[in-house]
Amino acid sequence: MERYERIIALHRQLQAAHRPITVARLQDELACSRATVYRDIAFLRDALMAPVVGDGEAGFAYDKAESERFELPGLWLNSEELHALLAAQQLLERSSGGMLSAALAPLQQRVEKLLDAHSGSKHVPMQRVRVIPHRGRSMDEHSFRIVASCVLERRKLAFDYRARSTDEKTRRMVSPQRLTHYRDNWYLDAWDEDREALRSFSIDRMTAARFVEGAARDVADTELDAHLAGSYGIFSGAPKAWATIRFSPKAARWVADEHWHSQQQGRHLADGSYELKVPYSVPRELLMDVLHYGADAEIIEPKSLREQLRSHLQLAISNYEPGT
């Protein structure tokens, strides 16, 4: 447990207690040493001005006359919680002026109030924190509204879809399962009624989205996770192979801390390089991410994936040949 989590947990323990809590119990509750309990008590009392009373023998508690008025100062959120709130707030801001803005305005106000509440009712200077969109694609908000409604209301959905890879236009009827926000773009995970299989659709490639009579078929979460989250990236399907990628010692300083897949396996090698293994079904997105590291990344296995990347590099080099 990180220190900020212990401080929050300690504060809540003392706030809820009707009698002093012993150090031994606090050790168990906070999963830490006796010395750490004393340091956290001192920090809570001296730095945060909490109304802590008591000692190590009788136990610690909050002064009842002061406890109701005391709250932890500052923004007591971890990086993931803060990012989630800020991302939600800025996603809502970017919808302003569109068809969703009126419907989302109350939600944006609630997010902003939550941020204010966690900052001790002080103004949060949002301009001091940035959530930068990266390669987001334009999307028809009318289609998004219908898709979102079908997901939440469990209704069937029909739309025209133009696949990005083939540019082929098809009409689809689906039972929506989940909305997925991935790399600044929205996707729909759905049961395709005609193909009788799970598919993922990029919402920016949809047109003429419309409601269809009838309730959507529900697919179990375990089946959705196995099919949609088993392979690398946004591409669905059970993994067909595992890729082994070796990164240079320089790139290792970044990659070792990156999350590529929930089942990834990584290890540092003796020469300072880093070996990463991830499962994949469709290699396209994985190849793009490996290419991002240029000469600092090398696909070791499987051989077919290694050769595929070699072909991509040769084609890229051909664009820079003299006379081209």
TrEMBL record:
Ranges annotated as spanning the membrane: none
Database matches in InterPro entries: CBASS_pafABC_assoc_protein, HTH_11, WCX_dom, WH-like_DNA-bd_sf, WH_DNA-bd_sf, WYL_dom
Pfam family, one: WYL
Domain WYL: 144-210
Domain Helix-turn-helix type: 7-59
WCX domain boundaries: 242-314
Alphabetized PANTHER family for the sequence: PROTEIN PAFB, PTHR34580
Protein name: YafY family transcriptional regulator
Species this protein is from: Thermomonas beijingensis
